[in-house]
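FW: tagging you since you asked about this chain on Friday. Here's the raw sequence from the shared folder, copied in full. Didn't touch anything.
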Amino acid sequence: MKKYAKKVLCLVLAMVMACTMLAACSAGAGSAAASQDELQKIMSNGKITVAISLGNEPWCWKDADGEVKGLAIDLIEGFAEKMEIDIEYVTLEFSGLIPAVQSGKADIIATNLTRKPSRAASVLFTESVGCTFGVALTRKGEFASLDDINNSSVTLTTEVGSNYETVGTETFPNATMAACENNSDALAAVKSGRADVMVTDLAIASSACAADDSLEYMTPYIYTDTLAFGVKCDASAMTLAEAFNTHLRVIKADGTYAALYEKYFGNEWVPMYTDSAM
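HL: got it, structure written out here
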């Protein structure tokens, strides 16, 4: 295992030396030379601090026994195992994830984080950990079509700070968005009637419908999402991002990722974008 970690570290350091990605992380460029390399620090300490947000099954949730589970958890734990380092989890609301890596409270965000340009100055994304669709989750029979949702009498909800807060507002501009602190609260709002529609990703909606047959998600899908993990947007964190990318490429090539995908989503993994297969 140590050989794996050393090979990854050497490969990553070589790749980063030739990389020109610093333009996307200009906020940290001025202090890059003085920054300690994040991956080397993690390897030296033997521990990686991981920021997670619960309540978004099948990506990350806590079961009845208090154990954290999900595809995001399996991916980061597989990486830590290969690198022979321990994990310390920091559980936060979604809105606190990016500030956690910016401040150094966490080394990496492990969740279904949407990659979008407006976040590029705040977080350095990894390659894709998955792709999904955005959907409107409602109580059964509440709406005949998506057009019916775009009404001033409709209250939308989602996880505050998530990409779906913007997606919902732009897709249904006449409705009112009332985002909740986390997905569990947003789902509860729909169930109780405090909100009419939860705008979320297909995986979360599917899990919710499987657990409660009074819910349904509507088609067609309203958004296509490509998801990633994230690290501090600074030159010192580039080796960490590339180390995880290397691990991701390996498990996508050897079948490990496909097995995890089937475990959590119940169907065969079929890459939707070129980068999701890298």
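FW: Residues 16-24, 26-34 have pLDDT under 50 and may be disordered.
HL: agreed, and The chain is about 35% helix and 25% strand.
FW: great, closing this out.
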